[in-house]
Design brief:
By secondary structure, the chain is α+β, with helices and mostly antiparallel strands. It has three domains: 167 residues, no CATH class; 127 residues, Immunoglobulin-like (Sandwich), CATH 2.60.40; 105 residues, Immunoglobulin-like, CATH 2.60.40. Helices cover 19% and strands 28% of the residues. The protein is built from eleven helices and 24 strands. A hairpin with an 8-residue loop joins strand 21 and strand 22. Helix 3 crosses helix 5 and helix 7 packs across helix 8. The protein is globular and about 80 Å long. Bound molecules: 2-acetamido-2-deoxy-beta-D-glucopyranose (3 copies). The site of one 2-acetamido-2-deoxy-beta-D-glucopyranose (NAG) has 2 residues, from loops.
Length: 487
């Protein structure tokens, strides 16, 4: 081949890859998206293990910034600069570099054993899979707070004649949302309980005996085992199955409060700690007089106060618009808002900035608390029905869940009623004045729920307050259910 011929070929190839490759990398935004990837065939299963490990060594703050906690320039975890010379990924903005990691030969000394040698042999790799991330460069070298904003999984070509290039056809971008979902399957704490919680939260069909065998194989990594099971074994079971909770006949604990279409599972699990980036700061929505929301904060560091900080109330974890804000000057305290309590309300801590020189408004978020929730529903003793206390616009309300098989419930509950009580010490006849309703007069509720129950609601005019509870009275003094007290 002549020199100029070779050059021309090379340019053509370059042009092609510029126009075709970079924007074609698929984005995976959820565990359901992961199920679409052909793991075990075109893509090594080991890359799932590598991704799980990576998602759990980084930190993600509330502004979706990834903190790496290691210096990729030092070769940790087999990491090194990736030049993107084939233009597999998008051209870099100024000040950014791509890095790759996951070479198990080079990373042997710092990758954990389960990545080097997964307990289930089917997940051992042939050292082809890698993680690529995009990191912001500092002029001043390693800062110990290096941040990344894009993450990919990729792999070397199977055939050695492709050299050490990565295969763009099997490269996927991993969104922050997916990283957050995977982090819920973390191995770090003792998760005997949360395996079943994860099963519920992510709608897996795995049964108890399969869970037990996962625990035997994966031990303290059983949550990872569950993730792998879901991605590999439940590929074809998306969206078209009965609700897992009802099928398995366990009480779905928070089904009613989670809109079905919410893609982001981060609210579902208590085990998802909001402390990421919060550094021990506590934020809570409290119940104040007349059913109004308060905000309680604790442990705000001095430097935060000095920079300027404010507590801000939001409708829920997805909300962007503040309902109330208050500049704080002490590390802990409490403030009453004029916002009526509703489920979902969430307090967040923000930095402040000045607008028009005199007006203080929220700036970057520092951390957030948990959404407020209704207490769990309780079984109406002896019947296939349950009672739940909930709050609506600051007022105490109750819901009846009636199993559809319990067809004659209106006859059975003909003289039954639900009363609201200031606290659990009140006797049955000490319900709040006029705060009660016949069970049969509850109105059908329009909340998402399963196929197995009908749901009815009653909205009282009693302001919700700490200790308030609802009770189901069959007739006379026969109390068949008492909800947990509002807290
Ligand atoms: C996890 O729980 C088991 C028993 O439930 C216990 O033996 C083990 O030490 C615990 N592990 C950790 C890391 O707490
Ligand atoms: C908020 O309201 C409660 C009553 O619900 C009251 O005891 C408390 O002092 C109020 N806090 C402030 C800061 O005004
Ligand atoms: C209920 O009664 C118990 C014992 O009689 C008492 O300790 C508790 O403070 C009471 N709770 C309320 C909310 O009055």
């Amino acid at each position: 081949m002549t020199m100029s011929g070779g050059l021309a070929l090379c340019c053509a190839a370059l042009l092609l890859s510029i126009t075709s490759a970079a924007c074609a990398i698929p984005r995976l935004n959820s565990i359901n998206d992961l199920k679409k990837v052909n793991f075990g065939q075109a893509v090594p299963k080991h890359s799932l293990v590598l991704l799980h490990w990576f998602a759990n060594i980084i930190d993600i703050d509330n502004n979706d910034v990834i903190r790496l906690n290691f210096d990729p320039n030092l070769g940790t975890y087999g990491s090194h600069h990736y030049g993107n010379y084939e233009r597999m990924l998008n051209p870099l903005p100024p000040g950014y570099r791509y890095y790759t990691l996951g070479n198990v030969n080079q990373g042997q000394s710092d990758l954990p054993d389960y990545v080097l040698n997964p307990p289930d042999g089917a997940f051992r790799g042939r050292n082809r899979d890698r993680i690529i991330f995009r990191m912001r460069e500092h002029d001043t070298g390693w800062q110990n707070d290096e941040t990344a904003d894009e993450v990919y999984i990729t792999q070397h070509y199977e055939n050695s004649y492709e050299g050490t290039r990565y295969d763009p056809a099997h490269t996927y971008q991993i969104t922050i949302n997916l990283l957050r979902e995977i982090r819920q399957f973390s191995a770090e704490d003792n998760q005997s309980n949360s395996l079943t919680e994860l099963r519920e939260a992510f709608g897996s069909n795995i049964d108890d005996s399969q869970l037990r065998s996962l625990k035997i194989t994966w031990r303290e990594l059983a949550c990872l085992g569950l993730l792998l099971y879901m991605v590999l074994e439940e590929k074809y079971q998306r969206h078209n199955k009965p609700p897992p909770a009802a099928k398995r006949n366990v009480q779905p604990h928070c089904v009613v409060d989670i809109p079905e279409n919410r893609e982001n599972h981060r609210d579902v699990l208590k085990s998802w700690r909001q402390s990421h980036g919060g550094g021990g700061i506590q934020l809570e929505v409290t119940t104040e007089s007349k059913g109004k929301a308060g905000i309680l904060w604790r442990g705000v560091p001095k430097h935060r106060l000095k920079e300027g900080a404010m507590v801000v109330l939001y409708k829920d974890n997805n909300a962007q618009e503040a309902m109330y804000s208050h500049v704080i000057t002490s590390d802990s305290g409490q403030v009453n808002t004029s916002v009526a309590l509703n489920v979902g309300l969430q307090a967040r801590l923000h930095k402040t900035k000045r607008k028009f020189c005199f007006w203080t408004v929220p700036a970057e978020e520092i951390c957030r608390g948990e959404e407020i929730r209704n207490p769990e529903k309780v079984r109406i003793h002896g019947y296939d029905a349950s009672l739940q206390l909930f709050v609506k616009d600051g007022k105490a309300c109750a819901r009846l869940f009636v199993n559809r098989a319990f067809e004659n419930w209106k006859t059975e509950f003909k003289t039954s009623w639900v009363g609201f009580y200031a606290n659990s010490n009140k006797s049955t006849e000490e319900y709040d004045w006029w705060q009660w309703q016949w069970a049969t007069k509850f109105k059908p509720a329009s909340i998402p729920h399963d196929h197995y129950h009908d749901v009815y609601e009653y909205h009282s005019s009693m302001p919700i307050a700490p200790e308030v509870q609802a009770r189901f009275i069959l007739r006379d003094e026969i109390v068949l259910a008492q909800t947990p007290s509002w807290s």
